[in-house]
Amino acid sequence: MSSFAGVVGQAAAIAALQGQLVRTGGAGATLIVGPEGVGRFLLARKAAAAILEAPALVDAGRHPDLSVLDASAGIDGVRGAAIALQRRPAMAPRQVLIVRDADRLSIEALNALLKLLEEPPAGAAVFVVAADTTLLPETVVSRCRLVRAHALSDKETARVLEEIGVPADASQDAEGSPGRACFHREAAVPADAERLLALLEKPRPDGLAEAEALARRRPKEESAAHRRRVQEVLRVAAARLRRRLPESESALRSVVDALRSLTANANAAIVLADLALIPWQRKRPES
User: Fold this and answer.
1) What average pLDDT score do residues 38-42 get?
2) What pLDDT was estimated at residue 222?
3) Which of 89, 86, 30 is nearest to 57 (CA)?
4) Phi and psi dihedrals of 176, rounded to 5?
5) What count of other Cβ atoms lies within 10 Å of the Cβ of residue 116?
6) C-alpha to C-alpha distance for 269 and 237, rounded to whole angstroms
7) Which of 104, 223, 235, 258 is the most exposed place for a label (fewest CB within 10 A)?
8) Phi and psi of 192, rounded to 5°?
9) Closest CA to 46 of 81, 16, 2, 94
10) Euclidean distance between CA atoms 140 and 173, whole angstroms
């Protein structure tokens, strides 16, 4: 059985990783880039399992020679992982590090990661997982072998969702990302997108209050998770407006502009409040 069994729709990425394993035994740094929720981390974990020769321990998160960092890892976390890579492997041919969502690391943590890549421990394998190379220092990208993961087809997305017990219709606005479909369902994104679209249709006396409720529906969430939910609400709203073209062209432009503003770190409450005011601005008579 292939060491990448269970990965759906990433034949080119699998071939690239298998070729690297044959040529290098996994040693060195590999950057796996692609949209969120399409299996980037799964690819890295499968490659790690092939290197460590213990898939069950890797899947259980209990292999002593595997370290995994996520986006919350600060400079100390990256430095600690670099020290771990220098140790003699306990069971496997080499130590392995997976850095998940590297494009969300702090600048300080990215600088520590760059130092690790510039002075890599002999024989260690490092897998850097990211959605967007433009959010990574060019020096980090240049020190890695690049492997690209792609959005899945509608059929592949539905297959993955079916395997994990999620209704296939959850893939409607997921853009080929099963992970995004699961997040949409868990965070009630489609319902909030429809609430947002209702705000754009006509002026409403409670429009600003409704926009504020959408922006702050889960105030106890971590800031990054909260912003992600609002971004996905805007993405789904934009996708549904595209299906209504040409009559929705003006509203689509407004939602896309709002998404760009939010991506550029604008305040979520202000972005949605501006959207709520658009119907009133359209209604205002010409001066």
Assistant:
1) 94
2) 46
3) 89
4) 75, 20
5) 23
6) 16
7) 223
8) -70, -35
9) 2
10) 32
Taking only the tens place, the pLDDT of each residue in 124-133 is 999 999 998 8
Residue 286 pLDDT greater than 70, yes or no = no
Pick from 10, 27, 233: nearest CA to 126:
27
The one-letter code for the residue type at 224 is A
Query: C-alpha dihedral over 156, 159, 165, 170, to 10 degrees?
Result: 50
Residue 30, H or E segment: strand 28-33
| Domains delineated in the chain | 11-150 (3.40.50.300), 187-283 (no CATH)
Q: Which residue has the tokens 């269970």?
A: 6
Reported as a single tens digit per residue, the pLDDT across 50-82 is 999 988 999 888 999 999 999 888 899 999 999
Per DSSP, what are the bridge partners of residue 172?
A: none
The pLDDT mean for the chain works out to: 86
Structure tokens belonging to residue 265: 């770190």
CA–CA dist 154, 46 (Å, integer): 23
User: Residue 149 pLDDT more than 90?
Assistant: yes
Is-cis flag, bond preceding 246, omega within 30? yes
Q: Is the pLDDT of residue 267 over 50?
A: yes
